[in-house]
Structure formats: structure tokens, C-alpha cells
Amino acid sequence: MSGQAPILTVTLNPALDLSTAADSVVPDLKLRCDKPVVDPGGGGINVSRAIKIIGGQSTAMVALGGATGQRMADMLKAAGLKVLRLTAPGETRQSLAVTDRATGGQYRFVMPGPEWHMTQLASTIAAIAEAALAGGWVVVSGSNPPGIAPGFEQMLTVRLKDGRARLLVDTSGEALRALAGSSIPVDVLRMDSHEAEGLAGRPLPLRSDSAEFAAGLVRNAWHAAAAPVRVVSAVGAGDSFVAGFVLAAARDWPMQEALALGAAAASAAVMTPATELCNAADVRHFYSQRIVTRL
Prior knowledge:
Layout: E1 7-11, E2 15-22, E3 37-41, H1 43-53, E4 59-64, H2 66-78, E5 82-87, E6 93-100, E7 106-110, H3 119-131, E8 136-141, H4 152-160, E9 165-170, H5 173-180, E10 188-190, H6 193-200, H7 207-215, E11 222-224, H8 237-250, H9 255-269, H10 280-288, E12 292-294
């Protein structure tokens, strides 16, 4: 797309997402479910899918293995995504989301994925660095596969510090803590409220609490208000945020406008069921109503 820097999304632990619904979710009984909706999932894949929805372009680098991996590769091709395929060390995992119609609650069952070995890490980092284009963005999103230590993102940060591309990381747990304390920071580190509280080691109930915590990580903090919508499903909201944010950044928009587009995409995503992600018209509408303030 004219006026957009290249975006490479990286998904090392993708999943074939199955979503369904049952009258109620209770133990012991056989639960009769609806026909499942099946989507290719995983952080980076979802980011690439959402970027396409809202009018941008990206390349999805995905580690795939086995029959499930081939099925996902076919689905990604059918969706019109540009894919760079890495070979995973085992069968690509599946995940399951079940909505309880009686309560409206959603239950999400996430499998671990195949075990990786650290010997595969160097070749994977080299492949990412080779695919990263000058002046572009690399988005590493989602959980690390079993066997990959938290230092993966830091090693990638060092590899990309030659100025070839900027790095956005959306992760959690030990990987997030390692990045937040690193002396070589990533360009953008995304976290949700639960991840921020875990990193801070304390509750952050107010916007001012989040701002105070963020001030210790960054020089400038902005807040973009979420649209007041009814939440149908939170699946993919974070990935849609990243998609909107990085697409705006790739178009060289100011930081606060990138934040606003990300918030608009996330607001649109929670309105759709299961793994549908965001709707382009909703994103445009919410962005036009954006409220962004400096903290």
C-alpha cells in the first residue's frame, strides 16, 4: 500500500481456533454444542488478519507443523494473507472457546503447542531479521512455544538494533518481565491491564495509577478512551489493537493517533462473536469519535 511501511508479524505458537456455544457449561454432562467456527489464530496471525480488514498490508511469518499446520496454511492463503512459513517442531496446536448461552460467559481452553529446542532459536531469529525490511515494523505477538526461554525477544531486539526495522512486542508472563527490565528496550511494548498489574506487582484500578506506572517505563504517556459498546467477545481485541496501532505507525501517524486507531479497532473487535476480529466500518466510526488525552 502506498504510504505504508512494511509490517512483518511473527507467530511462533499459532493455533487453530475453534469457537462454539452451549446452552450451559456444567461439569460431568455431555454438552451439546453448536457447529464450531474455525479460524487460523495466534497473536501475529490475528494482527495480520485485522490489518487486512482495516485496509493495510502485512506479511505473516508463521511456524506451522503437521496436518493442522497445513490446514492453517491453506486457510491463510484463502484469506489473502501473504505468508512466510517456518517449520514448527511438531503438530500445530488447537484452542477452544465455548460460550455459555445461559450466562453469556465465555470459556477459553488454550493448549500449549509443540516443544521447541533452543537450538532452533538462532535460525528463527535469523529468518525474522532477514525478512524484516528497512524502515518497517516487526510485530512479535502471542505466547512463546514451550521450550523457548523469555530471552527470545531480547535477542531479537539486539538483532534488529541495526536500524533495519522497529519492533513491537505483545507478550506476557516471564517474557514481559524480562523485556520490561531489559537495558535494550523494544520500540513498543504492549500489555493489557492484567499484564500491567502483574508487572507492577500491585493493582492499578485508576487511569492515574496506570499513568504513574507507565511513567516509569516511558517518557510520554497517552490515553485513548475505549468506545462504550456491549462486549460480545473479548477474543482478538488485543490483537486488533496492535493491528490498528502498528498500521497507523507504519503510515507515520503521530503516536496519539496510532493509539486512537488501536483503541478503535479493539472496541470494534469486542462487538463481534468468537474470533471474528474487527469490522472496518466500526473501526472508522470509532476512530472518528476518538478521545485522546496526554497523561
